Amino acid sequence: MTNHFVPSATETTPPPGSGLEPDAIGATQDTIIGMASSAPAATVGLSLAALVVATAYGSGPILVLTAIPMLIIANAYRRLNLWKANTGASFEWVGRAINPYLGVLTGWLMIAAYIVGTVAEVLLLGPSVLAVFGSSSTNTWAYVGIGCAVGLIMLVIAVIGIKITARVQVSMAVVE
């Protein structure tokens, strides 16, 4: 039986021209990009406090019980990153450690989840944008149009590169 977790010399050397440009973003931009992912966590944290109060502290054991698998998964990701850090980490690890077919399915599942999650979040912008400009329209197509426009703008920014993406993230954090 072969050990799938022993990297060869070709696995540890990235291809030329791949990877993030050195010093493309600074520590401040890196921190703000990381904070962009923590905003939903802050909302969940605040709502969990309300949940605990509303259930007369009965939800505490459930929260602890669900935290245990999350800690195990976080530790697994940490260890897998030590083995082979990769931007396509999940499907790469599943494909190498379990089965290449399952790795492909994992990749497609991640793509679907990111698309559905992003679209669900962006579509909520429509009513908010219209309310900021004083419109009380309930036109669903206006909501969808605003969401699509914002999604396309963010896609173009991401495709252009990490430097512009970091600047936009910093700008959005300042506005927030």
Provide a quick synopsis of the model.
This protein is 75% helix and 0% strand. By secondary structure, it is mainly alpha-helical.
Protein architecture, described:
It is built from eight helices and no strands. α4 (about 90-95) packs antiparallel against α5 (about 100-125), α6 (about 125-130) packs across α7 and α7 (about 140-160) packs across α8 (about 160-175). The radius of gyration is 21 Å and the shape is globular. Helices cover about 75% and strands about 0% of the residues. It has helices at about 10, 25-55, 60-85, 90-95, 100-125, 125-130, 140-160, 160-175. With about 180 residues, the protein is mainly alpha-helical.
Quick tags:
176 residues; mainly alpha; 8 helices; 0% strand
Question: N- to C-terminal separation?
Answer: 53 Å
**Average of the residue pLDDT scores:** 76
Order of helices and strands: HHHHHHHH
Total DSSP helices: 8
Tell me what portion of residues adopts beta-strand conformation: under 5%
SSE inventory with pairings:
Blueprint: H1 9-12, H2 27-54, H3 60-83, H4 89-97, H5 100-123, H6 125-132, H7 140-160, H8 162-175
Helix pairs in contact: 2-8, 4-5, 5-7, 6-7, 7-8
